[in-house]
Amino acid sequence: MSKRIGSIAQVFSLLLHGEFERFHVTLLHQFMPWYYAVHRRIFGRDPKPRNATDIARDPIMIYQMAKVGSRSVLFSLEYSYARHVLPGVPVYHIHNLVDLDVHEERARRVGDHEELEVVQHYRQIRRDFDELPNQHWNVISLVRDPVARNVGAFFHNLDHYIPNWKIFWKEGSLTTAEIMQVFLRDEQVHHTANVWFDVEFKSVLGIDVYEVPFNMVEGYQFYANPPKVDLVIIRLEDLNRVAVPVVDKFLGIHDFKLYPSNIGDEKDYADVYRAFKATPLPLDYVQGIYQSRFARHFYSEAEITAFTNKWTRLTRPRSR
To answer: pTM for the complete prediction?
Structure first.
């Protein structure tokens, strides 16, 4: 119930801030499922599709590691399929389909009921994928500057790393230097990007993304494991530029538009996040991340140099 109220509040906050197009789209996104449910109850079927001749009807996975900007793709695809009256096409948003027992045990240990629901949802998707051998799946994945992803993932879970950090930050007893120390000590967050595709895609999809050179000029790359899987990987840095033509080619949605999602994930830690990003990261840490196989597969030397300069030579206001 509280989630629903929060969602409605976010929709109307767009109207108050003059974001009329996003208000309209988000409103339709929120209430179209309700409309389809009512239509099915009254007529016993979904409404007829609209201008959907070329649109792919197979299940879609938006499947990637956390904090790579995938929520906008999820929101925009859900809206596109709803607008074309294709509510029966599932669009799943997934971070893990491997080692779900480990994720479940961790969620039970800390009493995270929301995470337990997510794990059960992932289990069902994995069962459907494994037990329906003739079902074709379309998979969209994103990658991102690995240092930016690491920082984003760390702050998304800041309560886990520094319990009660909000109190300490507000009273001035927590500094960016102390947060930096905690960030640099966490090996898992820095290790994730370099192993994620091997752990997840090779074992689940049967695709080794490192076997195919990534098209750094275009900013995306198509892969396939026929007849089961078609995959496209898009760099977040290129998403706004290439989302429309990629989705047209990949899914046949000729009028696709990318909308930023309004989930507000960073509101709670916006101030401390800005202060942290205004502090240069240690050069040895940054260079270590950009020497990884992941970084060098998806980004050019020039891009890595630019990222390195961004994270180690920042000229921003002094942090606390």
So the answer is: 0.87
